[in-house]
Write a structure and sequence with these properties.
The complex is a heterotrimer of chains A (516), B (97) and C (499). By secondary structure, chain A is α/β, with parallel strands linked by helices. Chain A contains 18 helices and 11 strands. Chain A has an 11-stranded mixed β-sheet, with helices on both faces. In chain A, a hairpin with a 6-residue loop joins strand 10 (442-450) and strand 11. The relative contact order of chain A is 0.14. Chain B contains 3 helices and 3 strands. In chain B, 30% of the residues are buried. Chain C has 499 residues and is α+β, with helices and mostly antiparallel strands. Chain C folds into 3 domains: 10-315, no CATH class; 323-432, no CATH class; 441-498, Arc Repressor Mutant, subunit A (Orthogonal Bundle). Chain C contains 16 helices and 15 strands. The longest helix of chain C is centred in the middle third of the chain and has 20 residues, at 244-263. Chain C is elongated. In chain C, 46% of the residues are buried. Classes of the chains: A alpha/beta (516), B alpha+beta (97), C alpha+beta (499). Chains in contact: A-B, A-C, B-C. Chains A and B meet through helix 11, helix 12, helix 13 and helix 14 of A and helix 1, helix 2, helix 3 and strand 3 of B. Strand 3 (87-91) of chain B pairs antiparallel with strand 9 of chain C, so a sheet runs across the interface.
Chain lengths: 516, 97, 499
């Protein structure tokens, strides 16, 4: 039945596609049906590309029939965060200022996915220009957490996380600048990975903060995330900051799934006050689990991590204020107020006023301030120095441990609207994830249980040194295997919210089982 | 006060945001809190610490001086809000050449 | 006051005020591809046809540095005696303007690729060492058309049209240190600097340096202070001065205008001005409310540039002979005094003389023809020497014909007439016009005898020892033979005849 197809992991789908038990068109159709049946509630997608997805699937089937060699993800569907440009689909970045914009080119990530035979189902919702931790900053309405539709799915890759969690797609692409892959993954109970900065190309990724933005995978299993990680990674001559080194062996590491003898460092500064008790409890249990699996747990201190949040909220808005200057209504996108009497400057200002949401405006002004003559040294300049100290903290910590761990985010999914008017409260969601963005090293979030007080998912964050992405998968897969055994299945199976979605979807589809 | 209302109004002009007076008031209050929070970086003494611009410690990343295909004719202009004579049409510009 | 009603007379202004000048020159590099993408730097007329996501600054696009642009910039720095940075970065210069697709320009700020050099220039016998503050690299902007106004300029236009073909072309900016102490020669020094810089760039082959096409653009800074004062005055910047003549005129005008402002007891306003090529005057650009804060920060999309010492030395060793060295070498080879060499240079004749010598002429002859008859013709026609329709090879042939006695000077000038009129090569013109020195003694003798017969008093003088008077008889022979006589032979025959 098509609903069963949507329950499979990408690895499982890849296998039955490879042995031709099923066609890519059937797989795609099943997922498109699932989207149609659930997205009015979840709102994960801004654009569903049904026709082109089926065409791409058909092409994969034809290729397979012709005996062409295909990769492990050929024919597997995916939701693409609407921050990646697509030559055949609009790209909005969750903003009115790009509503209807049709890019004339594909991002490198987009092109690599297509070349791998991955079927692009459509563009996923996001916080406007990747600024936010809840997807409430999307100009087109928030996405909702399938666990509880009154709660946020996290952000900024909230649509990507919601799509995977709601079984609309086994895979999604997100981007992580301050935590925007890992935090949504954590609050949705799925896996999210921020590769080493530069590990995959930023060409065609609409820039928020150039020195921090990192494309990465979201999936329901660690192995799926590894398969996607491998498919999109590697040097790109179109991106000067892309890493010119072999992709770390992430798939092999995910299969290895063993932590015996590994040194695991618990970061003192990432815990304590301000963290939800249930989050700390599940984190503590995860650490004990690691120990029981043979890891050696040590405590490490990263004293400058307490300055990571303020440093990030200087560096990122500064770069963003410059990156978003091009949205001025002159060459593409929204143009407002051009009644024939106004000057270019006036039209630019009216366009940006109408086209940008509040959070984007705040960050643009904050960034402009931090870069201003007279303030640069004390703000942007100082933040870049703090960044050096954070890198040194990581270097020192990685002398004592092979990986570091912490909770991914201080709380579980909060209600929609709770933090919308309190920017500082919203920013705190990034407390644990930001250090790895500043240092550029690899980090992953894997579900480690439900918080007892609210029954909502908690994520365990694992951090590895630059270019040691494989360690994330080795440890993550080990934790996942042990926990799933403990739970008797995936964490998502414990979600009454998802079950309710299934039921509503089943009613909607009217028992339309089977495939063509 | 970390940042004044006047400074916020100035920042809005600099960044080409035609904020209403109410918006300026609203943002000024929020930015005041945010600026105070991010100013915490100044607690760190970092006199001899070099700033990090790139997490990637590489240099000399270049491309060869050779041609690649341009965008097909018309595609560049196809998304323009206004175009004329194969050029992007923009409202009148005040100021010198 | 920025536009005084009357200017101070130039000589008066420089008698009472001392000018300080500075120049910022933008050079479009002649690389194959643009600064950060693979679009061409040379393109046809169709607007927005040589563009891609990168030079259009589309969302998601990223720059990648063209190595040739770095190489060309280092070579320029070396030719200008600069130090080359061992490590430097690009920076973003942030401001809103529709000719910049990203609303920021990738440039260099406090870490230019080359610093602290110099370029020697001469005006007459005045030698000035112009200090070079910095040479850095940036990307060019798009081009605008302003529609609806009277003059096609920005003021009064209804709207503007933008073509981004030029956006992203590599642009090198050469900034001089302030140049004091030039006095009344300030305008000429400025012009000489731009001329020499242009020649250096052309020799390096890094740009076609055509000012009229915009591949070489100048901004001219001028300030004045009362003679003898130690502090410098407030400077103005006149932008986009696009010919050598205009460089000179802009400096001259600004000195006169600023003198008038100061004479009236006012202060010179620090501002950007615009030069009107037709009148040679400058007017105030729109005054800025405050100095622009470009909020420079290191470009995060590009990694630092760290030219290795080996690479720099390789480039230094491969530099061609630069104009100053070449001039010195040629002057020595041609054994010319300074004044003659300066005259050649001023007339733009050095290349022509070199080529004429290469075609076989003696240096003195080559110099004589180009600086003499040909320069006169060029001035008459109002063109540059190099624009005359006569080649160095042809001039060398004429010089050869005179040297062998086949032509005399007068006939040679007639031959040049023919060549300039398009009648062909020297030999063709000589044949067609029957230009030949009369060396047939028979014809000469009858003219000689006629001259002797017609001038008995001159003959008497000669016989009495005043042989110089023979010149009169030679003149008569020349006249009788319509200038075609070999004057030397005629003189010989006259002296023979008179014993």
């Amino acid at each position: 039945m098509s609903s069963e197809l949507t329950r499979l992991t990408a690895a499982e789908l890849g296998a039955i596609l490879a042995d031709r038990t099923i066609s890519a068109v059937e797989v795609t159709r099943a997922h498109l049906d699932r989207i149609a049946a659930t997205d009015s509630r979840v709102h994960a997608f801004l654009h569903v590309a049904g026709e082109s997805a089926l065409a791409a699937a058909a092409a994969v089937d034809a290729s397979r029939a012709a005996g062409d060699p295909l990769g492990p993800l050929a024919g597997v569907p995916l939701a693409l965060k609407d921050v990646f440009v697509t030559a055949d689909m609009p790209t909005t970045c969750g903003s009115r200022i790009l509503e209807g914009w049709q890019p004339p080119y594909d991002a490198t990530v987009t092109a690599r996915l297509r070349r791998a035979g991955v079927v692009l189902l459509g563009k996923a919702n996001m916080d406007e220009f990747a600024m936010g931790s809840s997807t409430e900053n999307s100009a087109f309405g928030p996405s909702r957490n399938p666990w509880d539709l009154s709660r946020v799915p996290g952000g900024s890759s909230g649509g990507s996380a919601a799509a995977v969690t709601a079984y609309q797609a086994p895979l999604a692409m997100g981007t992580d600048t301050g935590g925007s892959i890992r935090q949504p993954a954590a609050v949705c109970g799925i896996v999210g990975v921020k590769p080493t900065y530069g590990g995959s190309s930023r060409y065609g990724l609409v820039a928020f903060a150039s020195s921090l933005d990192t494309p990465g995978p979201l999936a329901r299993t660690v192995l799926d995330a590894a398969l996607l990680h491998e498919a999109i990674s590697g040097h790109d001559p179109c991106d000067s900051t892309s890493v010119d080194a072999p992709v770390p062996p992430v798939v092999a590491a995910a299969r290895q799934a063993d932590v015996a003898g590994l040194r695991v460092g618990v970061v003192t500064e990432l815990g304590g006050e301000g963290y939800q008790p249930g989050v700390l409890a599940r984190f503590g249990q995860a650490v004990e689990l690691l120990e029981s699996l043979g890891a050696k747990v040590v405590e490490v201190s990263c004293p400058h991590f307490r300055y990571a949040l303020p440093a990030y909220y200087l560096i990122a808005p500064s770069e963003a204020s410059s990156n978003l200057a091009r949205f001025d209504g002159m060459r593409y996108g929204l143009r407002a107020g051009d009644d024939g009497t106004r000057s270019a400057d006036e039209v630019m200002s009216l366009t940006r006023e109408a086209g940008f949401g509040a959070e984007v405006k705040r960050r643009i002004m904050l960034g402009t301030y931090a870069l201003s003559s007279g303030y640069y040294d004390a703000y942007y300049g100082k933040a870049q120095q703090v960044r050096t100290l954070i890198i040194r903290d990581f270097d020192a910590a990685f002398e004592q441990a092979d990986v570091l761990v912490s909770p991914t985010t201080p709380t579980t999914a909060f209600p929609i609207g709770e933090r919308a008017d309190d920017p500082m409260a919203m920013y705190l969601a990034d407390l644990c994830t930001i250090p790895s963005d500043l240092a550029g090293n690899a980090a992953l979030s894997v579900p480690c249980g439900l918080a007892p007080e609210d029954g909502l998912p908690v994520g365990l964050q694992i951090m590895a040194p630059v270019l040691a992405d494989d360690r994330l998968y080795r440890v993550g897969a080990a934790v996942e295997a042990a926990l799933q055994q403990h739970w008797g299945g995936p964490l998502l199976a414990q979600s009454s919210g998802i079950a309710a979605l299934d039921e509503a979807a089943g009613r909607q589809q009217g028992g339309r089982c089977g495939t063509a | 006060m970390s940042i004044t209302r006047d400074e916020v109004a100035h920042l809005a002009r600099l960044s080409r945001l035609a904020l209403s007076e109410d918006e300026i008031d609203h943002f000024a209050g929020q930015l005041d809190v945010i600026v105070a929070a991010v100013a915490r970086v100044q607690e760190v003494t970092a006199d001899e610490i070099p700033p990090t611009t790139h997490a990637v410690p590489r240099v000399n990343v270049f491309r060869e001086d050779r041609l690649l295909p341009c965008l097909p004719a018309g595609l560049a202009l196809s998304q323009a809000p206004a175009a004329e004579q194969s050029r992007f049409r923009v409202p009148r510009i005040l100021g010198e050449d | 006051m920025t536009e005084p009603a009357t200017l101070v007379a130039y000589d008066d202004a420089v008698a009472r005020y001392e000018p300080v000048i500075g120049l910022e020159t933008h050079v479009e590099l002649g690389t194959t591809a643009k600064m950060f993408c693979g679009c061409p730097t040379r393109f046809g007329a169709e607007p927005n046809s040589a563009v891609c996501p990168v030079c259009l600054g589309l969302p998601g696009s990223l720059p990648v540095t063209n190595v040739a642009a770095i190489e060309y910039t280092i070579r320029i720095g070396l030719a200008l005696n600069c130090g080359i940075a061992s490590w430097c970065r690009f920076a973003r210069k942030n401001y809103f303007y529709p000719d910049m697709p990203k609303d920021y320009q990738i440039s260099q700020y406090d870490e230019p690729l080359c610093t602290d050099g110099w370029l020697d220039v001469s005006v007459g016998d005045q030698h000035v060492r112009v200090g070079i503050e910095r040479v850095h690299l940036e990307e060019d902007t798009g081009k605008s058309l302003h529609v609806g106004g009277a003059t096609g300029r920005i003021h009064g236009a209804d709207y503007s049209l933008f073509d981004y073909n030029r956006a992203g072309i590599p642009l090198v900016e050469v900034v001089t240190k302030p140049v004091p102490g030039t006095g009344a020669l300030a305008p000429e020094v400025a012009r000489a600097y731009v001329t020499e810089l242009r020649d250096v760039l052309r020799t390096l082959g890094v740009s076609d340096v055509r000012m009229e096409e915009g591949s070489l653009r100048c901004d001219v800074n001028v300030s004045i202070a009362p003679a003898g004062s130690s502090a410098w005055g407030t400077r103005t910047e006149t932008k986009n001065v696009n010919s050598l003549r205009s460089v000179e005129r802009a400096v001259r005008f600004e000195i006169q205008r600023q003198a008038a402002v100061l004479d009236a007891g006012q202060k010179v306003v620090q501002e950007t001005r615009h030069l009107h090529e037709d009148t040679g005057t400058t007017t105030s650009g729109r005054s800025k409310e405050e100095a622009q804060d470009y909020r420079y920060f290191p470009e995060p999309d590009l990694l630092p540039v760290a030219p290795s010492p080996d690479w720099v030395e390789e480039l230094r060793a491969a530099l061609p002979e630069l104009p100053a060295a070449r001039r010195a070498r040629l002057q020595a080879e041609w054994e010319l005094p300074d004044l003659d060499m300066a005259a050649l240079r001023h007339a733009g004749a050095i290349d022509l003389v070199e080529q004429t010598v290469a075609a076989g002429a003696a240096p003195a002859d080559a110099r004589k023809w180009w600086l003499g008859e040909l320069l006169r013709r060029a001035n008459e026609s109002g063109v540059e020497l190099a624009a005359l329709p006569v080649t160095p090879a042809q001039v060398a042939r004429v010089a050869e014909l005179v040297a062998t006695g086949a032509l005399n000077d007068k006939l040679a000038r007639q031959a040049l007439d023919g060549m300039l009129a398009g009648e062909g090569d020297p030999d063709q013109v000589v044949a067609a016009r029957s230009l030949a020195v009369v060396s047939d003694d028979g014809e000469l003798l009858s003219a000689v005898d006629a001259a002797i017969a017609a001038n008995p008093d001159v003959v008497a003088k000669i016989r009495s020892g005043k042989t110089a008077a023979a010149g009169v008889l030679v003149g008569a022979v020349m006249k009788a033979t319509r200038g075609q006589a070999d004057a030397t032979r005629a003189r010989e025959l006259i002296m023979e005849r008179l014993g």
